[in-house]
Amino acid sequence: MRHRRPPRPGALQTLSPLRILTQILLLQTLHYATAFALILFTALAAGNPFSLDLVLSWRSLRGDTTIGWTLGLCWVMCAGAGIISILLLIARSKLVLDFALSLHFIHLLVTSLYSKAIPRNWLWWVLQAVSASLMVGGGVWACRWRELRPIEFGGGAAAKGKGRDGDEGVGYLVGKGKGRGRDGGGEYEMVGIKDGEDSV
């Protein structure tokens, strides 16, 4: 009889169905809250009446009206804000594609149920493709940037101690800036000998 390997530590917590569902709901809520705020502001600034059709109906996104193109711009800006939401809520580049496509699939369902028809507008479909691509590309880049940042273990603490003769930090550079130690540990450089000093 074959024995199963025990799950790695933390595996049940990171792939917990309840956690994934909570993350999807939070992501969807933030997506609609951002869209609602942007579209409400845009409608009021343009002097147009606001209705839920602007947010939830695909019929409002038309390529032959100014309102349709303005709504399209709002949805693209909402996708940009979605990158920040993915970075804060998901934070793993492997999961970005799943969550971004789930968000857009749920939006398709909500839009279809609200409008009582599957979207037949080309601008709506192009906008969803652009939004999903932007969220996946930007989300993967942001999460990888966060994952690949160097971990600091407090290497700068050694630089705070005094030298033998009280010359604190002479010839020692702390790891900030171009060409210096990236781990915060610093590097040493040659220091010139002053006239009159005994050489060893």
Question: Explain this structure to me?
Answer:
The longest helix is centred in the N-terminal third of the chain and has 30 residues, at 17-46. The protein is flat and about 85 Å long. It has 200 residues and is an all-alpha fold. α5 (96-115) packs antiparallel against α6 (122-147). Helices cover 54% and strands 2% of the residues. It has helices spanning 11-14, 17-46, 53-56, 66-89, 96-115, 122-147, and strands at 172-173, 187-188. The chain has a two-stranded antiparallel ribbon. The chain is built from six helices and two strands; from the N terminus they run ααααααββ.
Q: Rg to the nearest angstrom?
A: 27 Å
- Helicity range: 40-55%
What string, H for helix and E for strand, traces the elements in order? Answer: HHHHHHEE
Form type? flat
How far apart lie the N and C ends? 71 Å
Q: Structural class given helices, strands, pairing?
A: mainly alpha
**What is the overall pLDDT average?**
82
- Compute the number of helices: 6
Strand content: under 5%
Name the poorly predicted regions: 157-164
Strand count, sense and barrel status of the largest sheet are:
2 strands, antiparallel
Q: Provide the spatial order of strands within the biggest beta sheet.
A: 1-2
Pick out its properties:
200 residues, mainly alpha, flat
Summarize the structure.
This protein is an all-alpha fold. The chain contains six helices and two strands; from the N terminus they run ααααααββ.
Topology:
Blueprint: H1 11-14, H2 17-46, H3 53-56, H4 66-89, H5 96-115, H6 122-147, E1 172-173, E2 187-188
Antiparallel strand pairs: 1-2
Helix pairs in contact: 2-4, 2-5, 4-6, 5-6
